[in-house]
Amino acid sequence: MTVDLEAYRGLVSDLGDQAEHVLRAAWSEAVQSFGPAALEVTYLGGARTLARLGRTSALPVAFLQHAPAVAREVGDACVEALVEAAVRFSSKTSQAVIERLIEVAPIAATRLADCDLFREFLSLIDELLGLAPRGVRPLLDRLEVLLRELTVRGLRRWALWGARAHAFDFDAQVRYFSLEAQEALSMLQRERVGTLLVDVQRRLLMYLRALWGRDFLLRPQGRDLETGEQARPHLEGITIAVADAYDDWHATVDGEDRVARGLELYRAAVAHAAAHAVLSRERFVGVDRPAAERALVGLVEDARIEHAARSRFPGFARLWGQFHVVSARAGEDPAALMARLARSLAEPSYADPHPWVQAARSVVEQRVLGRDEDVAAAVDAAVAELVELARSYGVALEGAEALTWQPIYRDDNAFLFVEEAHAGVADSAVDVRPQQQRRTVNVMEMVNAVDVPNAGDDADEI
């Protein structure tokens, strides 16, 4: 549907000729990036709000030019957050700094690729305006370089260290945030991570499409601000939330050094979550279920879908197997035994000496692996038998529910559990979107009709 700019002319007529000129140039992108309501309230309304903050039209002009790119990357809710931040910052800093923030907002939106992380970036700028106001402008000028190396949490640690170290030295603040000080480069090196999701996201999406013939969405999630721990991947419909960055992974298993690059860890994580989306068609009762039993259900279902996926793609055996590092040396506490069982199910050549692990492996292999019908009933029966075996062998499973024993690539399994009324119901969340149509065309058709420069991964036809 074509949206006529003239219908909104009255909303921007008092912003000046330059703003109107920029608006006309940005209008096509704005219509594609904002919904009809957000186009008027968030986009044009935001420009009018910013016009009241300064004596010139610099702020609304910058906003009209750059806000569509922010909306395209992280949604119009984050554009609203940007306007609110600009209003809040107007009492703390100059119009020039706010204008620069708006100019670089598309860089932050593109690199962070998530509205929550974008809000964290705005929160960091707010905090820095109180701690190191002279450092904010040089930080914004170097933002593209910084976000190429750091996650938003890493940027926060780097920035706050510099702000606190030079709280009373304005010249040192400028040198630090301009990356001219050696200590700034040293801290940057310390905070940088191996692989950022934004740098490999497109490759991962193509990887999943090649594997399963369907589209998924990837959403970055950062570390917990208080504990610093990285949340496990999380699946919701066709959206896989995964770490915003992964360092290279190292471990020693039975005297053998194992190393996996960040990209390989990403592949393992998204392939496992996608396998759940495709193959975990039934759900399990989660309400009032002991936490240890929930952990066992997740372990058994993980084993089932990985077994099915390996039968289709044998390369998964190496991809996932390398991250199972536990052995008998890990001990016999509940978490260690669960991890040992997970490895024995994922790596058939691994023979664990513990009798419960051996018996549990046999139960799962006989009752669950290879099954694709009445899965919930089979898994529940297997879990009940594993609990009975644990009692008979004197194994206390309580304490293994934290999932810290799970290999690093596995998700939190939260999507597996529902209320009792919906347990066992086949899930069709993955299939709700129409499949993309592919056509083979000649050169002239491609030039004149099919090739659309702005078409994304969600195009109906390619």
What fraction of the residues are assigned to beta strands by DSSP?
A: 5-15%
Shape estimate: elongated
Physical arrangement of strands within the biggest beta sheet: 2-4-3
Number of domain units = 2
How many beta strands in the DSSP annotation? Answer: 9
Helical amount among residues, as a percent range?
55-70%
- Could you name the ranges where pLDDT drops below 50 across 5 or more consecutive residues? 428-436, 442-458
Number of helices: 20
Termini distance?
21 Å
The sequence of SSEs as H and E is HHHHHHHHHHHHEHEEEEEEHEHHHHHEH
Radius of gyration: 26 Å
Mean pLDDT across all residues, rounded?
85
Largest sheet: 3 strands, mixed
Decide which structural class fits the backbone: mainly alpha
What order do the helices and strands come in, and which of them pair?
Elements: H1 9-12, H2 17-33, H3 36-51, H4 58-74, H5 76-89, H6 95-112, H7 115-131, H8 133-141, H9 143-149, H10 152-165, H11 170-177, H12 182-191, E1 195-196, H13 197-212, E2 217-221, E3 234-236, E4 239-243, E5 245-246, E6 249-253, E7 256-260, H14 262-279, E8 284-285, H15 291-312, H16 316-321, H17 334-346, H18 355-367, H19 375-392, E9 417-418, H20 443-450
Parallel strand pairs: 2-4, 8-9
Antiparallel strand pairs: 1-5, 3-4, 6-7
Please explain how this structure is put together.
By secondary structure, the chain is mainly alpha-helical. It has helices at residues 9-12, 17-33, 36-51, 58-74, 76-89, 95-112, 115-131, 133-141, 143-149, 152-165, 170-177, 182-191, 197-212, 262-279, 291-312, 316-321, 334-346, 355-367, 375-392, 443-450; strands at 195-196, 217-221, 234-236, 239-243, 245-246, 249-253, 256-260, 284-285, 417-418. It folds into two domains: 5-194, no CATH class; 196-431, no CATH class. 57% of the residues lie in helices and 7% in strands. A hairpin with a 2-residue loop joins strand 6 and strand 7 (256-260). The longest helix has 22 residues, at 291-312. It is elongated. The relative contact order is 0.07.
